[in-house]
Amino acid sequence: MLTDPSASLFADLLLTAVEISLDVDADQDGVVEKNNPNKASWKWGPDGFGAILLVNCDCDSGKRPDNEKTYIGTLEDLKDMAQMVLRTAGPKKLPEGYRLKLHMSAHDAEAAQVFTKGSDGDYPLILASGKLSREISFTEEMTFNVSGLKFADKDFAGLVRIHVSLLQQGSPETAIFTDTVQFKMTPWIMTPNVQDPLKVYICRTPDNKNFIDGMTTLVKKVGCELDIIENEINRGDRWTQDEMEFGYIDAPYQSFPVVFNSPRERELDNFPYNCLMGPDFGYVTFKPPRDEVNSLESFGNLEVSPPVTVNGKKYPLGRIVHGGAFPFQTDGRNMSSPTRNFLSAQVVQEPVVLFTDWLLVGHVDEFLSFVPTKDIKGFRLLLASPHAAYKLLQRLQKEGHGQARFFEDVPDVKPVTVDELLADKVFHEKNDYYQRCIDWNRDHLKKELGLDEDDIVDVPLLYKPVETKSVSFYPDSVNLIVLGQNLGIGRPFGPKVDGQCAIEKELIRLLEPLGLKCNFINDFRSYYENDGDVHCGSNVRRKAFDLKWWKMEMSNH
Length: 557
Prior knowledge:
About 15% of the residues lie in helices and about 30% in strands. The protein is an alpha+beta fold. β14 and β15 form a beta hairpin. The N terminus is likely disordered.
């Protein structure tokens, strides 16, 4: 076929350029910036980056935590969610044969879900477990609300990734472009005794009027709030400390307290869920296998140190402290593995495990407490000391007070003289053993918290054997409540010299030069005789740290 050589050949080339960016607050300032190069990464520290996702565990509507819901019950719930923005540029719609899809993995969908505003003003759920992808329209800008569902744990590092992909139809359909963002889940953070108290919780029972009166006077003196949990709510369970532990969660866009409900499942079990959880007050709990739950699961066995530095490594939020069996002991009691795994997975307050199985109840608060001071160190560790108690009693005997009696003012309790106690060799041998148990913990705490001997105060306390374990011989002076510089201490009812309890006098001598004030509360009948004391019967919600956890140096995480 002949062609006209003067004719020109033309081909139409159609180029369609589109811009797609899925964005989050990667610079942690509360604003979603465009196309941050670090939006799919995480880095700890003052120069760190990465988006943060709050665990949405409060209850803004209904009776369940918001992280158990697949809907937004009130617009207030949006404040607890991280924003994610899809920004696009190009034609008004994609060319035929292409579509845009938002998606996440099944693993990540167990930890987060995504909502967006619908045309009717509602906020439908578009990504969740069983709903891993959603086709979305190509528009200039679209805002999503991401809700965190669970905390980091043994099998979940706390990182969630969400993707948007431009797909070309075919068999199979192929992604010609994908943009990814990543969120870091907020950890649950405990607050140590050095943080200012906000609210004190105690229970009212038919037999604890003396305790209620003493605590009411103390809290009024300090000036914080007091919540007395009435008997019809606590159902006779007086151990407020054992039932729950207060902490908080924090993100650039929101923060609120979170109560960790112990798996102990006693009569107070419903209080944190029914009476504390609500708008901007979160809730978390675990249900370990029943055969793993024992006395050590109660949260008198869960404390946290003030901020410390250990061999140059800083723990600006302190370190969690809890008790268990002696290392390598196979038949001892420990916290359940789900609870221990959860505490370890929060990483910002790396736990220290102590030996507490020598105690009948087995809690760390039976032999230690942290108290604030106004010096450079900022705190002291109080450790129970049978040796200090014997030293005190021996001095009393030497000064001619051997007939001074313990429990002299307690009705229906047989008094014990200083002479009688010092003459009891078996009792002394037992306390030498208890001292060795405390000394092992002392060395471990010095190593793990970077403490010197000057950072420790030895508080005189004796223990008595019960079966194969032990409990305090008189009300436990380290099992106390800390409210600023004021300490609420169980009245020890020790031997009196010149009308004053010698143990109270010694506690005042040891603690008040540190700027602390000793307030003695009668808890003998209602708490001590039930194997607990002031700390066991009270709980304190405290002010959160000023430091933002994501600014911590955490090179290994």
